[in-house]
Design goal:
Elements lengths: L1 H18 L1 H8 L5 H11 L3 H12 L7 H33 L4
Helix pairs in contact: 2-3, 2-4, 3-4
Length: about 100
């Protein structure tokens, strides 16, 4: 009887380890989004597709830490460049109007 209970406990622990394998792998690989992967695995991992997606996600390389800040900087730089070009063009048009030479 006691051996049977021990076997069942071992089977449950093994099943949980297999179920949460993507989260365990993400933890071992020091993923920055470990909590997100673990939650995804817990919520959708009961489907075979969800478990495979979580496993695939766990094996992906870490995204850059400051990716949102880098994207914001690049957008601002591009918008400021476009604004500067448009402002320069407008100034040249006004100067040409004042001098009477159409552009």
């Amino acid at each position: 009887m006691l051996g049977r209970i021990a076997l069942q406990i071992t089977e449950v622990v093994f099943a949980l380890a297999i179920y949460f394998l993507p989260a365990i792998i993400a933890d071992r690989r020091n993923r920055h989004d470990l909590l997100t992967i673990a939650l995804f695995n817990a919520c959708v991992g009961w489907t075979a597709v969800g478990w495979l997606l979580a496993l695939f996600w766990a094996f992906q390389p870490n995204p850059p830490i400051e990716i949102a800040r880098d994207i914001t900087r690049k957008r601002r730089l591009l918008s400021m460049t476009a604004f500067s070009a448009a402002l320069g063009s407008r100034i040249e048009q006004r100067a040409a109007k004042r001098n009477g030479t159409p552009r």
